[in-house]
Specification:
heterodimer, A: Rossmann fold, globular, B: Rossmann fold, 2 domains, binds thiamine diphosphate, binds iron/sulfur cluster, binds magnesium ion, THDP-binding (chain A), TPP_enzyme_TPP-bd (chain A)
């Protein structure tokens, strides 16, 4: 009887989740569960051998994603997912390395690695769930918080201007850049498939809902309210100039696939090229 | 020399006799140990290691990457190690300081890799081009939390080569980042280096799991307290985290799991101390006074011993080749033999305090310090001995 019951609730994605790791730590109304599910679907549909997939996360609520996924998965330190991913990716040109982490992790403490990873056109995919602040540590402002946003370390409203992540990634050299909100599950999935299959540095920003530490301080009490707010403001614009996609408090949220450049050599391409040159050079003494 | 291009295997171990520097010897030692990835950031006095690796690694099918900082460098070599490649970085004090958090990640996730620290005078920017031995305690305690580390200190160009291989072997055998504590003088001085043939070099590789991936527990240790290591792409669905974790690699945040994990991480080094601790005993048989030293300072110490013995003072040397784990027992035994121990080091007493602890009051311990910028002269050491022993 219980066996049957258990069978009945098995989800087709269960094999991609670590046995015994669910329930997850994420709050009700958080979009991280559904985003993780979309990533699983995308990996499945990409047709890539699951042995060739590695998932890397930094630290944060989003950073917990790696630990739930049943691939080779690495939960690293705060901000350092990208250099870990680069070291891992260059050891096997066929390996698909996917970084899943938060806005604070990737754009604040790890910002240096983000811009240099993009500059190198390293052969990795970076999925950044931007919930506009630091969820895990209780809702402090971060580098994507907009001016005037209320957070625990901005009780009078944020005094700084935010990074526009697609613009940042693009201007640093990323060759695939896209943004969706957590609501756009179907298009997000298609984009993530393309991003994983893309050769070079692909960057996908997902605007996520964090009711617990963002929403309730900013008149968006429920996760659904945040998503509804996204829906109202979303403007679909494939090919949009990623230097003009900045998000403000109430302005439009431009989503779509902004950039796809196919002819730029990747870091791995160039490393392999250097190997060929080096192997052909004559030996010289020490 | 003939025009033929050597095959890949022929180029990993450049068997022969050379006159070269400690930095180049360390780089060649890494290659001989099977290192295939180097991630680094330039810093004096270590940069020649990175430069040489950028030239040599692509020849042997490896990769060199210069990163945006030392944090990325250390993390990248952890990533490469999980890709199944032996990996290394090289730096000096300021860079080592930046690496510390992620050396902790390497310890927690049990990731084999090697860090060369070519020490210079500190703190801060200090003496970029001059010798220091001031990172001894930083290596031991610099990352947060409780753990054991392995650190080795060569004292010749030959040992820079030999001990880099040993460092890789320990890293692979005990699954942790191992530090090679060089210094500016060693890194830049030139002397003879003999690179043996590939067959003569003992190389240890990490244990691989043999069980079925469906029942594999990535952090279940064998009797030696070291778990076999699957790497990415082998079908084991590697699970790693810097969080406290159980044998499955799953985060379990409670005191019981912490006790079990940290105890094992500490014990895997402590219980294998006899295998890890390397020492050189020099003229200790009849010694009434002992010097304890390491690295470049041990060479000056030997000079002082010659001078002392000419004067009829029976001095010998215990050279610490392995600095961490510390040779407590051997030093306690030495204290029972000699009345006075002089610790010669280019810092304000970082090894001296360990010796004081180890001797358990059985001998007088004197520090012979320099704060960086120059190595001791044998005369300086001798005069210190004569001043204190009347
Ligand atoms: C070196 C270091 N500094 C600070 C922290 C504390 N910390 C953990 S998660 C986090 C912020 C996470 O924010 P984000 O990346 O946006 O992820 P979210 O939780 O919002 O998904 C911080 C500051 C840490 N773990 N390590
Ligand atoms: S704090 Fe926010 S981001 Fe973190 S799990 Fe809760 S809702 Fe999600
Ligand atoms: Mg966040």
């Amino acid at each position: 009887m219980t066996d049957k019951l258990l069978k009945a609730v098995e989800h087709p994605s269960d094999v991609f989740l670590r046995p015994g790791r669910i329930p997850h730590i994420w709050c009700p109304g958080c979009s991280l569960g559904s985003v993780t599910n979309v990533i699983i679907e995308a990996i499945k549909q990409s047709g890539i051998d699951s042995k060739k997939i590695s998932i890397i996360s930094g630290i944060g609520c989003t950073g917990r994603a790696a630990g739930y996924l049943n691939f080779d998965s690495f939960h690293t330190t705060h901000g350092r997912a990208i250099p870990f991913a680069i070291g891992l990716s260059v050891t096997d040109p066929e390996r698909k390395v996917i970084v899943i982490s938060g806005d604070g992790d990737l754009a604040s403490i790890g910002g240096n690695h983000l811009i240099h990873g993009a500059r190198r056109n390293a052969d990795i995919t970076v999925i950044c769930v931007n919930n506009f602040q630091y969820g895990m540590t209780g809702g402090q402002v971060g580098p994507t918080s907009y001016e005037g946003q209320f957070q625990t370390t901005a009780p009078y409203g944020n005094v700084e201007h935010p990074f526009d992540l697609p613009g940042l990634a693009y201007s640093c050299g990323a060759t695939f850049v896209a943004r969706w909100t957590a609501l756009d599950v179907r298009r997000m999935k298609e984009t993530i498939i393309e991003a994983i299959l893309h050769k070079g540095f692909s960057f996908v920003e997902i605007l996520g809902s964090c009711p617990t530490t963002y929403g309730r301080r900013n008149q968006l009490r429920e996760g659904l309210e945040i998503l509804e707010n996204f829906r109202k403001r979303t403007v679909l614009k494939h090919g949009a100039d990623p230097t003009k996609t900045e998000i403000s408090k109430d302005g439009p949220i431009i989503v779509g696939k902004f950039v796809e450049i196919k002819d730029k050599s990747t870091l791995t391409d160039n490393l392999l090229k250097v190997q060929r040159i080096a192997k052909a050079t004559k030996a010289r003494g020490l | 020399m003939s025009e033929t291009i050597q095959k890949e295997e022929d180029r990993t171990v450049l068997t022969g006799e050379y006159f070269t520097t400690g930095n180049l010897a360390a780089a060649e030692g890494a290659l001989a140990a099977g290192c295939k990835f180097f991630g680094g950031y330039p810093i004096t006095p270590s940069s020649e290691i990175a430069e040489h690796m950028s030239y040599r690694l692509p020849q042997v099918g490896g990769h060199f990457l210069q990163f945006e900082d030392e944090i990325a460098s250390i993390v990248s070599i952890l990533g490469a190690s999980w890709g199944g490649w032996k990996s290394m970085t090289a730096t000096s004090g300021p860079g080592y300081s930046l690496m510390l958090e992620n050396i902790g990640l390497g310890i927690m996730t049990e990731t084999p890799c090697v860090i060369v620290n070519v020490q210079r005078g500190g703190p801060s920017t200090g003496l970029p081009t001059l010798v220091g031995q001031q990172d001894i305690q930083q290596t031991r305690w610099g990352s947060h939390g409780d753990y054991e580390v392995i650190a080795l200190a060569p004292n010749s160009v030959q040992e820079c080569f030999d001990l880099t291989i040993v460092a890789f072997n320990y890293a692979e055998k005990y699954r942790l980042p191992v530090t090679l504590l060089m210094d500016e003088t060693l890194g830049h001085m030139s002397e003879k280096l003999i690179i043996p043939t590939k067959d003569e070099i003992k190389v240890i590789n990490r244990k691989k799991p043999k069980d079925d991936p469906s029942i594999h527990l990535p952090y279940k240790a064998d009797d030696d307290l070291v778990p076999p290591m699957a790497t990415a792409g082998e079908g084991y669905r590697v699970m790693t985290t810097g969080l406290t974790h159980d044998e499955r690699g799953y985060p379990v945040l409670n005191a019981e799991t912490q006790e079990k994990l940290i105890r094992r991480l500490i014990d895997k080094i402590r219980k294998n101390k006899d295998d890890i601790i390397l020492l050189e005993e020099y003229k200790l048989e009849d010694a009434e006074i002992a010097l304890i030293s390491f690295g470049i300072s041990a060479r000056a110490s030997k000079g002082a011993i010659e001078l002392a013995r000419k004067k009829g003072i029976k001095v010998g040397l215990l050279r610490l080749i392995t600095i961490w784990p510390f040779a407590d027992e051997q030093i306690e035994k030495l204290a029972e033999q000699v009345g006075n121990i002089f610790v010669v080091e280019i810092n304000a007493g970082q090894v001296t305090r360990e010796v004081q602890r180890a001797v358990k009051g059985k001998a007088e311990v004197h520090g012979v310090f320099k704060y960086g910028g120059a190595i001791h002269t044998p005369e300086e050491i001798l005069s210190e001995i004569e001043r204190r022993i009347k």
